[in-house]
Amino acid sequence: MAKKIGVLATQMVDVKSIVPNQDNPRIIKDDKFVQLVRSIKEFPEMLQLRPIVVDENMVILGGNMRFKALLEAGYTNVPIVKIDTLTEQQKKEFIIKDNVGFGEWDWDILANEWDNELLGDWGLDVWQPSEAGNLDDLFDLQGEAEAVQKFKITLEYSEEDYAEITELFKKYAGTKEEIVFNLLAQ
Question: pLDDT tens digits for 36-64?
Fold first, then answer.
């Protein structure tokens, strides 16, 4: 049984003393990584509120991508919290639970009370106007004067769910878009 965790103190350590966790299954790619680096540069105080969590061997349990972004941003010292009381199973559990988003966003509140551009800058994927900022970019002109506004909804599924949904589509006539529209309209 692991010891109880008391009050944990944040300490500053040299980045060379920290060991990235090679077994952490969470990654961050390309533009999201650039956003994370920019976020750290623009709001470094956040690091004191969410320090890197390491075990007794200085292996990262929480904050692997933040650590990578800190290196990219040129940091030589970073805030950490060291936990030396977890079992190997608890370490694995922490790594996963630290990266799982249990909640959902209330999109109505976000849309009405928050600035879309700021939310996007902060890393939340929200609707953004076209780069040109021109509504004409949303139109596909048909014929001489008729304009049809088009929107796209992207749904993501696990491989298993996708296979199940694809099978369900076979029960209906029409394109996938027509089938979804008709089902939602019921």
Answer: 899 899 999 988 888 999 999 999 999 99
Cα gap 94→18, rounded to integer Å = 18
Q: What's the pLDDT tens digit per position in 13-31?
A: 999 999 998 888 878 888 8
Which residues are registered as beta bridge partners of 13?
A: 78
Q: Domain count of the chain?
A: 2
The CB-side HSE value for 186 (13 A sphere, CA atoms) comes to 5
Answer whether 0.70 is exceeded by the pTM. Answer: no
The domain in which residue 149 lies consists of 136-186
Distances (CA, A) of 87 to 61, 83, 98, 109, 152: 12, 10, 16, 40, 46
Q: Are residues 87 and 142 in the same domain?
A: no
Distance from C-alpha of 157 to C-alpha of 155, rounded to nearest angstrom: 7
